[in-house]
Amino acid sequence: MYPARFQLQELTAHVLGLLERRREAFKSWDAETEAKLLETAREALNEAGKQFAELADDKPYWAKVERAVLEVAVPRYFKLAREQLTVEANKYGVWRGGDLLSRVIIGGGGALVGLVVARTMLPKWFELLPVMVLVFGPLFPDVQFWAGRRRWAKQLQRLVTEMGDEQLQQERYRPLEEIAGAVNAPPPKERDRA
After folding, report:
1. Cα–Cα distance between 167 and 52 in angstroms, integer?
2. SS3 content of the chain, % helix, strand, coil (to 5)
3. ∠ at Cα 142 (98, 150), nearest 5°?
């Protein structure tokens, strides 16, 4: 077994981290964006491949890992990132993008509802709700931004975890060619017993 940094899960996390730092610089998603990010992923894998070659001479293992990152993880990341870029461009669906006026209106709405509730014969505990809207309402856009970023981080973490599961599947499965090659290989020569 190789060190964790050369396993599929850690390697995917490393590559996605690099891609995520680069993705923030792009305001739109197109073929050029994907090409630049794919080049970044290849550079990261080439560098890791050089380090792996210093540790072990297992080219089939590295080819499987590299292929899994480039053909499975990166395309899935591209799909998720394209959706995330759209969500970020729409400011996570926050009304008016969470600007100052929207925060004032939310707080003012809480104050208005508080006045209406104070004039009616509702239970006393109900009077706290408009006060909470008045105090915490202006923070509601921040909560929406935080929830959107947290959802994005969980999607990336799920992708990394699934790539770890993918490596377990690769280790359990051996193609028939590998098995046939091992069975048909000539036996090792016996050493002279002298």
Report:
1. 17
2. 80, 0, 20
3. 125
Which residue in 40, 42, 44, 58 sits closest to 3, CA to CA?
58
The whole-angstrom separation of Cα 93 and Cα 147 is 11
d(CA 63, CA 136): 53
Reported as half-sphere exposure (CB side, CA atoms, 13 A), residue 23 has a value of 22
13-22, 59-68, 87-96, 121-130: lowest mean pLDDT where? 121-130
Separation CA 47–CA 104 (nearest Å): 51
What angle, 0 to 180 degrees and rounded to 10, lies between the N-to-C axes of helices 74-89 and 140-172? 170
Element (H, E) at 102: helix 100-119
Integer Cα distance of 117 and 183 in angstroms: 83
- The single-letter DSSP state of residue 96 is G
Contacts of residue 32, Cβ cutoff 8 Å, sequence gap at least 6: none
Q: Which two tokens stand for residue 150?
A: 């947290």
> What confidence score (pLDDT) does residue 28 get?
83
Which residues are CB-contacts of 12 (< 8 A; sequence separation ≥ 6)? 69, 73, 159, 160, 163, 164
